[in-house]
# Entry
Amino acid sequence: MFFKCHHCYQAFLVGITIFLCSIMSLYYSLYLKAYFFYGGIFYLPITLAGFWCGKKAGLVSALFFSGLIILNSTVSSSEYLFNNLLQIMIFVLVGYVVGALKEKDWYSEKIIEHQAYHDLLTGLPNRLSFEESLEKELVFAQAQNQLLAVYLIDLDRFKYINDILGHLAGDKLLVQVSKRLIDALAEDAVIARSSGDEFLVFVPGVSEEQAIIEIAMKIIDSFKKKFIIHEREVYITISVGISVFPAHGKDSKSLISHTDMAMNKAKEMGMNGYRFFSTEMNRDISDKLYIANNMRQMVEEKKYDAFELHYQPMVEVGSGRIVGVEALLRWHHPDEGLLYPERFIEVAEETRLIVPIGKWVLQTACVQIKKWQKKSYTSLKLSVNISEQQLRDKAFLNDVLTVLTETRFDPSCLELEITETVAMNNFGRNIEVLGELRRIGIRIALDDFGSGYSSLNYLGTLPINILKVDYNLVKEIPFNIKKSAIATSIISLATCLNYEVVAEGVETEAQLVFFQQQRCTYIQGYFFSKPLPPKELEALLEEQQKEVAFVGN
# Structure
C-alpha cells in the first residue's frame, strides 16, 4: 500500500510541474507574443518524468515540451531556430537517458525481488513465497469454512544420485522433478522448492479428504515414469507428508512443520507412500527432545555411569563355543528405568552425541574384554557397532588408536560393525577410514546384510572381513524357501570372497541346523543367549569351559 501511494505522489508532482511549466510557456507564446527565454526549466519535468515514471514518460514529456518550444518560435520569432532545435535534441536525450537508467534500476530490483521469492535452479517459488501464498489462502479457507491440505514431497535416496552421477546430474533431476510436478497438478496448484530435494504443494479449493488423497496418489504416480539424466535412465521414489488446515495447524509455519513430521513417518514406512500428520507424531518429537536434552546433559557432565554395556555371545558353529561378544548399549534413565538402544540411539546419532558416547563404549568394552582375556579367554573377540557420525568424525581413527594403546587391546581381537547405509554414505571417505582400520589389524563387519539394495554392487570394494546376515532374513528360515535360498546364496558368496559369515537372530533349533548344514561360520541369537550384563556373561563363559553350547553336526 505504501508503494502504491508513493508512486501516486510522484505522478502527481510530475503532473503539477508539467502543468506549471506549460502555463508559463503558453503565457509567453499566446498572450505576450514574445519569445520564452526560460526553456531550461523544462528540464525539471522531463527529468522527473523519466526518473520517476520511466523511459516512455521521459520521451513523451520531452516531445511535449519540444512542441511548446516550436509553438513559441512560430508565434514570436524564428531567429532562435538553431537554439530551439538544439534544445529539443537535448530534451529528447535527457528524457531517454534518465528514463533508461531508471528502468535499468527497476529491472535490477525486479531480478533481486524474483530471486528473493524464487528458487534459482528450478524457477519455482521458494519457501518464503510459498508461506506468504499459503497464509493468504488460509484466510480464504477459514472464511469459507474449508479444508486446505499442504503436501511435502521428499525424493528418496536423492543423495545416491549425487554420489553416483554427480551434483550436475542431481540438479538436472531436480529441474525435471519440478516440471513433472507442474504437469501432474492443476494449474492453480502452488508448487515450491522448499530446500534440497524437498518440494511443497497446496491446491486451493480441495476440501474433501478423498480429493486430498487423490492428489497425493497423483503426485506419487507421476514419479513412476523414468527420468533421463545424462542419457541414463533413472527411477526415483518419493515420500509425501500431508497436513490439513485447520485440524493440524492454523498458520503456514505449523502446517509446514507438521508435513515434515508426516513425511519422515512416510519415509520410515517405505517408498512411494504418503502419511497424514497425527498428534502421535508430535508426541514422538517431544519424546525425542526429552531424550536428547537428558542425554546431552549427561554427556556434558561426563556422567557415563548411567550407561551400561551388555554382551551377546557369538558362537562358532563348528565347535559350539563362544568365540566373541558384541557390546550393546543400555541406559539406566533416572525416571524411566532401563532403556534399550531403539529408544535413544537414533537421537544420539541425530544430535552427534553418539561420537563421545561411542568412544566411551569402545573404551569400556575393551577394558572389560581385556579382563576376561587375562583370566583364561585369551582369544575372545569384541564386536562394537559404529555409526555414520563416528566415521565422519575426523578424530575417529585417532580415538580408536588411543583406546587400543591405553587398554593394550590386540587390534586383531576387535571387530567394528557398520551397516550398508553407513558404508554407502560418503563412500570415498569411509573406504579410506575403514581401509586404515584394516591395515592396523582391526576386523570390519558389514551388519544387516540382505536388508539393503546395493550391497552386491559394492561388496568387492568395501574393506570387510565379515558379513552378518540380517535378522529379518534369518527369522523366516528354514520355512520360507525363498529366504532360505537367499541365505544360502549369501553364505556361498561370502565363502568365494573369503569372508566369514555371522547369522544374527538365531532363535530356534531348526535355524541352527540350517546354518550348520550351510557351513555358516558363527551364529548369534536367543537360541543360545540374549545380551547379558558383564557378571552374567562371565558366568556363562565359566560354564562353557565345562561344556560346549551345542554339539556341531
Q: What stands out?
A: The chain has three domains: 2-116, 127-284, 353-544. DSSP finds 21 helices and 16 strands in the chain. Residues 1-6 have pLDDT under 50 and may be disordered.
